[in-house]
Automatic annotation (TrEMBL):
<keyword id="KW-0249">Electron transport</keyword>
<dbReference type="InterPro" id="IPR051269">
    <property type="entry name" value="Fe-S_cluster_ET"/>
</dbReference>
<comment type="function">
    <text>Ferredoxins are iron-sulfur proteins that transfer electrons in a wide variety of metabolic reactions.</text>
</comment>
<keyword id="KW-0479">Metal-binding</keyword>
<dbReference type="InterPro" id="IPR001080">
    <property type="entry name" value="3Fe4S_ferredoxin"/>
</dbReference>
<keyword id="KW-0411">Iron-sulfur</keyword>
<dbReference type="GO" id="GO:0009055">
    <property type="term" value="F:electron transfer activity"/>
</dbReference>
<keyword id="KW-0813">Transport</keyword>
<dbReference type="Pfam" id="PF13459">
    <property type="entry name" value="Fer4_15"/>
</dbReference>
<dbReference type="InterPro" id="IPR017896">
    <property type="entry name" value="4Fe4S_Fe-S-bd"/>
</dbReference>
<protein>
    <recommendedName>
        <fullName>Ferredoxin</fullName>
    </recommendedName>
</protein>
<feature type="domain" description="4Fe-4S ferredoxin-type">
    <location>
        <begin position="4"/>
        <end position="32"/>
    </location>
</feature>
<dbReference type="GO" id="GO:0005506">
    <property type="term" value="F:iron ion binding"/>
</dbReference>
<keyword id="KW-0408">Iron</keyword>
<dbReference type="GO" id="GO:0051536">
    <property type="term" value="F:iron-sulfur cluster binding"/>
</dbReference>
Length: 67
């Protein structure tokens, strides 16, 4: 089974929040509105949503890679 890992380019994040709107179970926003994840490994069943959230980022600050 393919597992996914989220890679964040934090300096590129401008806090638009699209990722967290699309996939709130993976992408969270800190007090400054900047993205973070509790765990870079995407939980099973959230792969499509995590990919969608990453692809929606206008800053290309998120990548989802197979591990
Ligand atoms: S969509 Fe991109 S710029 Fe917006 S909060 Fe998420 S990572 Fe940051």
């Amino acid at each position: 089974m393919t597992r996914l890992r989220v890679v964040i380019d934090k300096p590129a994040c401008c806090g638009y929040g699209l990722c967290a709107e699309i996939c709130p179970d993976v992408y969270k926003l800190d007090a400054n509105g900047i993205v973070y994840v509790d765990d870079p490994i995407v939980p099973e069943g959230l792969e499509d949503s995590a990919r969608e959230g990453a692809e929606a980022c206008p800053q290309s600050a998120l990548a989802v890679e197979e591990i």
